[in-house]
Amino acid sequence: MSDKKYALIIIDMQNDFVLPGSPACVAGAYTTIPCIKRLLGFFRTNRFPVFHVIREYRADGSDIEFTRLHGFLNNKQYVVPGTKGCDIVDGLSPVEGEYRIIKNRFSGFINTELDFMLRRIGATHLVICGTQYPNCVRATIFDAISYGYPVINITDATSAQTSQIADANIIDLKNIGVDCISLDEFLNLF
Amino acid sequence: MSDKKYALIIIDMQNDFVLPGSPACVAGAYTTIPCIKRLLGFFRTNRFPVFHVIREYRADGSDIEFTRLHGFLNNKQYVVPGTKGCDIVDGLSPVEGEYRIIKNRFSGFINTELDFMLRRIGATHLVICGTQYPNCVRATIFDAISYGYPVINITDATSAQTSQIADANIIDLKNIGVDCISLDEFLNLF
Predict the structure, then answer these.
(1) Nearest CB to B106: which of A106, A134, A146?
(2) Predicted-complex ipTM score
């Protein structure tokens, strides 16, 4: 597998999306932390590149999707820079040499430096996990395929509000050629 | 509703994706033709703008997604410019004044002039239909929301390989604020 260069992309594992009771909690996200931690450990041990792709929204709502604006301003704010809720969850914090990419749309490729940086480091294959399946994870994976990156999605390191939603998304992802496998299956490749 | 300017986006209704037995046939697409035709008639009658967003792949495979390359070169080619299969299906052909946008990725916004043109004509709301739900339709809708366009998806004018796949995608689309309604419900807005 020496001709492949894997990069890990962990999406939106921030307190406001992950912690139970948080303002924009994705029900399945909290229980994926140990699995993502193992995956991250593997990348660190092998000195493979790691990208933490996260959301930020300005407190005045000026950069949020319009479909979320009303709720954001009236009921609850989330992932506002400088708040605790915006931080990556304990256990998955970036360490020196890992990249932090801020997006404020679904896809990590929209108006970010992600593609430039992946090209610069010569990444050939992307390993993608995080939350949540139907939105940011899927949009990022579709764009990754569009830009020419083979994608491995680690299913037990990726979450949704329900297992039905996760399963339906996995079907669609497999149908466009994404390799959706468990962490153990991934680690067995090496 | 006078402050709203609707544009219709019809996706990938080409012979190779739609006709039964065609090389890349989407099972549900053929039966949506009458519904899309009615929708198109409404836009023409009202002189609202229409965009026919279609796929093209060069015959040597140089621009196709890598996940589809092997099948394209070895088993079947489809939507190759100049072939009958690449044409929009009978009954939905563009007329003068309608726009034809060629994409070769899932989203109609990737490396196309679609957003520039929508801004130029002052479109405020997009009505999106065509084939197929999990891929080009959904990727285009997610990007439309990302770029700030409210989206109405006409469910009976949009298709997938199975109704289960269509239904699962509609759930995800509604969850990000897309208005998924039938043609009759849409026409009743006016």
Answers:
(1) A146
(2) 0.85
DSSP string, B113-153: SHHHHHHHHT--EEEEEEE-IIIIIHHHHHHHHHTT--EEE
Is there a contact between A147 and A162 (Cβ–Cβ < 8 Å)?
no
Count other C-beta atoms under 10 Å from residue B154's C-beta. 26
CA distance B73 to chain A (A): 16
Check A65 against B176: CB less than 8 A apart: yes
* Cβ pair B172:A176 closer than 8 A: no
Q: Is A29 within 8 Å of A35 (Cβ atoms)?
A: no
| Beta strands A6-11; A125-131: pairing state | parallel
User: What are the backbone angles phi and psi of residue A123, rounded to the nearest 5°?
Assistant: -60, 135
Contact A14, A20 (CB under 8 A): no
Element (H, E) at A146: helix A138-146
Which own/partner pairs from B24-29 qualify as long-range (CB within 8 Å, at least 24 positions apart)?
B24/B76, B24/B78, B24/B79, B26/B131, B26/B132, B26/B159, B26/B160, B26/B161, B27/B159, B27/B160, B27/B161, B27/B162, B28/B131, B28/B132, B28/B159, B28/B160, B28/B161, B28/B162, B28/B163, B28/B166, B29/B131, B29/B132, B29/B159
B98 neighbors B51 (Cβ within 8 angstroms): yes
Residues in chain A closer than 8 A to B171 (CB atoms): 165, 168
Q: What are phi and psi of A6, to 5 degrees?
A: -85, 140
Alpha carbon distance B25, B132 (integer Å): 10
- Assess whether the previous peptide bond of B164 is cis (omega < 30° from 0): no
pLDDT tens track, chain A, 190 positions: 568 999 999 999 999 999 999 999 999 999 999 999 999 999 999 999 999 999 999 999 999 999 999 999 998 999 999 999 999 999 999 999 999 999 989 999 999 999 999 999 999 999 999 999 999 999 999 999 999 999 999 999 999 999 999 999 999 999 999 999 999 999 999 9
Contacts of B172 in chain A (CB under 8 A): 134-135, 165, 168-169
